[in-house]
Amino acid sequence: MDQRVNPPATEPADLIWREGVPESARFGDVYFNRENGLSESRYVFLEPNNLPDRFTNLHSNEHFVIAETGFGTGLNFLVTWSAWRKCRPENSSILHFVSVERFPLPQEDLRKAFELWPELASLADELLTQYPHLIKGTHRLVFDGGRVRLTLSFGDLLSALSNHSFQADAWYLDGFDPSLNPEMWTDDAIKRVREHSKPGTTLATFTAVSRIRKALETNGFSVQKRPGFGRKREMLTANISSGAHTLEVPAVERVTIIGAGIAGSLLARNLAERGIPVLLIDQASAPGAAASGNPQGALYAKLGIEYNAQAELAATALSFSQRYYRPWQSDFWHPTGLLQLATTDQEVARQQRFCQRNRYPEAFLTPVDARKASALAGIEIKAPGLWFPGSGWLEPSKACQTLADHPLIDAHFNVSVALVEPDDGLWRIHDSRGGTHTTSRLVIACGHNTAEVAPVTGELRLKPIRGQITCLPESGLNLPDTVICGSKYLNPASNGQAVIGATFDLKSDNPLPTPEGHQENLDELFRMLPSLSSDRAPEPDSMAGRVAFRCTTHDYQPVSGPLHTPAGDEVKGVFLFTGLGSKGLVWAPLLAEFLADQITGQPACLPDYLARRVETRRLYRKTDA
Question: Strands (DSSP E) along 31-184, which ranges?
Fold first, then answer.
């Protein structure tokens, strides 16, 4: 295989620019009408689907789903987003735009194309800011404070449609001419379009090829011809009136979340921005007081050598979290970049194998030698490593407090949950103060205490792992400008100190920092960064630190989804969000998005094969029948 397209990098579009308009060198076709691509997009897709009127008539908390078979330059998305802004009602309705692109445009080509449409400049700039790295898989982009969500899959159309859960209200069948790009217009592709449709779904496409019309009719669509745009004589529109599966999702009035750590706070904020009131309960006195209470935390994921589902989930989560935290750069998010050092022979060999088998975009990850690492960090480094320019560190407790501060979030602190029990189709929560709360949707996000609260009889395979951090005084030490990760992590200085962490104590339940824990952190730090002289550090007995208990699963993969019984039956209305381990800052934004999708019945941001990796059924031990 050509090294340029080794996974997970996706093969980019190969463009020819003629008179300022992009053409595909691979397919020999233009991306849009040369004379007026903007008018073409409105005529071919928005008008036949009657989108302005349908947008205007949406109710609060209702979502509208548009699916597209070729993202291309993103013009259709931008035109649709512009129409949504003009026509949407002043309520909590949400636009979902689901699109697939086999050969995505690099960002610089997108920017050049966007220059053709100055009236869309503000939207185009926002899309460019969030446009994902060209990594195979599915990427969720969130705009307008959560009112617009773009689910963009880089990869094969059939695979994307087979692995995603959504039902479209309208379809844009786009892509290059069927004679030039037949793989996008197969009967199987039309069948998948039908499977993602429901009674009332409409469809529009620029082509009027008889084979496409017959395939649509075979799959239950009523098809009409209409005059085409510009030089095209005809185009097709269609709708489906009956027979398609409809997913009924009851309206969500309020969601109760137990636990206000990074998982619970992110989910509460996500739901609130979708217009859903949240009751947030925590036994601590403020958000982010337990495992999320450390003063600094690194945004870091160690990616697998083989690009399998586990590595894809981690890479997707890291990319999403970098985009998600960006609005809080002047608050709790510090994108300093991150170096993952290879300080042992074993890790050097591992990183060499990783680089041989994987090709990530350089803006996401790039290998560096010791000299380059030293220049990036601002200190002497004697080991090679991997550079993550979009990563950095957060103030987790401050992040939780900021995220939980929203008018639709009703936070109750210093309240522990004594009992959760069913109550006539709802769930009744009894708290330590003698109060009760009734809810139709309950999310348990209280770390290693999850098993004590969950209303199931089986044993959930969750375990706490003690982690101790050490606060290193800034004075007298030449600390790095970036986050350094290896056997431990070291953050840049903040407020006169830098955090080293963390120990991984499988058998200890001591809630207090120990000198031995500080010594372990210091020993590993100076082995990782020998240029930091150990005689400058204070004695372990006098050092400050903190202990937190990470919640992990048996397979060290997180949990986000409906709760199930040991028999595999879904516990209706109850969800788990836990098991994030030491990578909660990376996992939580994407999995909060995914869980909010599930709770509200909106299109899922994870393909089915990744969703299975975080489901709750795997928490029970398998037993022989």
Answer: 63-68, 94-101, 137-143, 148-154, 170-173
Among residues 413, 495, 465, the alpha carbon closest in space to that of 583 is found at 465
Neighbours of 129 (CB within 10 A): 12
Q: Are 499 and 607 found together in one domain?
A: no
Do 474 and 349 belong to one domain? Answer: yes
CATH number, domain with residue 194: 3.40.50.150
pLDDT band at 247 (very low <50, low <70, confident <90, very high): low
> Over 199-241, what HEC string results?
CCCEEEECCCCHHHHHHHHHCCCEEEEEECCCCCCEEEEEECC
85 and 173 part of one domain: yes
Say whether 353 sits in a helix, a strand or coil.
Answer: helix
The pTM of the whole model exceeds 0.85: yes
- Of 103, 155, 149, which is closest to residue 130 (Cα–Cα)? 149
Final residue before a domain boundary, out of 520, 536, 553: 553
- Quick one: 108 and 191 in the same domain? yes
- Residue 473 class from Cβ within 10 Å (0-12 exposed, 13-18 middle, 19+ buried)? middle
pLDDT, tens digit (0-9, with 9 covering 90-100), for 56-70: 999 998 999 999 999
Could you tell me what percent of the chain has a pLDDT over 70? 97
Number of structural domains (the chain) is 3
Nearest C-alpha neighbor of 351 from the set 364, 333, 339, 336: 339
66 and 128 in a single domain? The answer is yes
122 and 259 both lie in a single domain: no
Number of other CB atoms surrounding residue 159 within 10 Å? 16
Residue 326 forms part of a structural domain? no
How many helices (H) does the chain have, and how many strands (E)?
17, 31
Domain boundary among 553, 568, 591: 553
Inter-residue contact 202 to 24 (CB < 8 Å): no
Residue type (1 letter), 382: K
- Tell whether 181 and 206 lie within a shared domain: yes
d(CA 520, CA 470) in angstroms, rounded, equals 10
- Domain carrying residue 233: 3-239
**Inside any domain, residue 317:** no
Whether 121 and 263 map to the same domain: the answer is: no
Compute the mean pLDDT over every residue in the chain, rounded to the nearest whole number: 94
Q: What type of residue is 415?
A: V
- Burial environment of residue 435 by CB neighbours within 10 A (0 to 12, 13 to 18, 19 or more): exposed
Q: The sheet that has 393-394: what strands, in order across it? A: 297-298, 393-394, 333-334
